[in-house]
Write a structure and sequence with these properties.
single chain, 271 residues, alpha/beta, D-Maltodextrin-Binding Protein, domain 2, five-stranded mixed β-sheet, 8 helices
Length: 271
């Protein structure tokens, strides 16, 4: 009788241990979503394959014993899925009360681009009067006046032509080349990669003109869902790992690898 009771007790302990391990181990992987935003988040054949942010965050989390699973999702959907807690985090979100943001990994600047023979130039927000701007839905470009302008006019396609989907940036360039609008706004590192890709695939002579840049660079962070009970732990782990990468020099090495200029992308980890 005692022997049978002992066996049942041991079986119960093992079962509870396995269940505990299952839930604990399941929380050692964090899913982070983004669209294709190379060189920060790069995708091929429907999957994220790397990129500056992906490599930095993956290495930083590995230092804390956490695995990163990066998933390719259209940005607007990625925001909603993360906010609802279906995905744990999102790369480079705008400020949103539904998210807990990491410390800035870098700062990035966006500029305006036109066809080479277009005389339009950006001086201030008034420059956008009587023109159509190509932008990407739910992106943040300056955390200031331009973002407010886009949000205000997002339902007026004659003022703001919104792009959606996993490859919204590439689609905006194609619409600009087709003269669907006069000017588009994009991160200056991202536009370089997109033009290089188009030159390889279609036209080696293809070129766009930079027609001015925004004054305010944006803080590039990782946003974690407030609907995930582990988000505070994820953020603390990532922030600690990022500081380790910076102090070791590996963060700067990754910036050089992905050719992200320090003038437009400076580390914010020391602040």
């Amino acid at each position: 009788m005692r022997h049978q009771l002992a066996i049942k007790l041991i079986t119960l302990i093992l079962l509870l241990t396995n269940l505990s391990c299952h839930f604990a181990c399941a929380q050692t992987t964090v899913r982070i979503a983004s669209d294709d935003w190379c060189p920060y988040v790069c995708a091929e054949n429907g999957q994220i394959t790397g990129g500056f942010l992906v490599d930095v965050v993956t290495q930083a989390m590995q230092l804390r014993g956490i695995r990163v699973d990066s998933v390719l999702v259209p940005f607007s959907r990625a925001m909603n899925e993360t906010a609802n807690g279906n995905i744990q985090a999102i790369y480079s979100p705008p400020a949103d009360p539904r998210l807990i943001l990491s410390v800035p990994v870098i700062y990035a600047r966006s500029c305006f681009y036109t066809l080479p023979d277009e005389p339009w130039t950006y001086r201030d927000l008034g420059s956008l009067n009587n023109t159509t701007l190509g932008a990407i839905a739910d992106y943040n470009y300056d955390d200031s006046l331009l973002d407010d302008y886009i949000q205000r006019n997002r339902n007026y396609p004659q003022l703001v032509d919104m792009a959606y989907g996993e490859f919204a940036g590439m689609n905006n360039i194609k619409k600009l080349l087709a003269k669907r609008f006069t000017v588009m706004v994009e991160d200056e590192a991202v536009i370089t990669v997109l033009i290089q890709k188009l030159q390889r695939n279609n036209d080696s002579k293809l070129a766009l003109k930079q027609a001015g840049c925004l004054d305010n660079p944006i803080a590039v962070t990782i946003g974690f869902s407030r609907n995930d009970l582990h988000s505070d732990d994820w953020v603390k782990a990532l922030n600690a790992g990022l500081r380790q990468l910076e102090s070791s020099g590996r963060l700067a090495m990754l910036q050089r690898r992905y050719q992200i200029a320090p003038t437009s992308s400076r580390s914010g980890l020391s602040h």
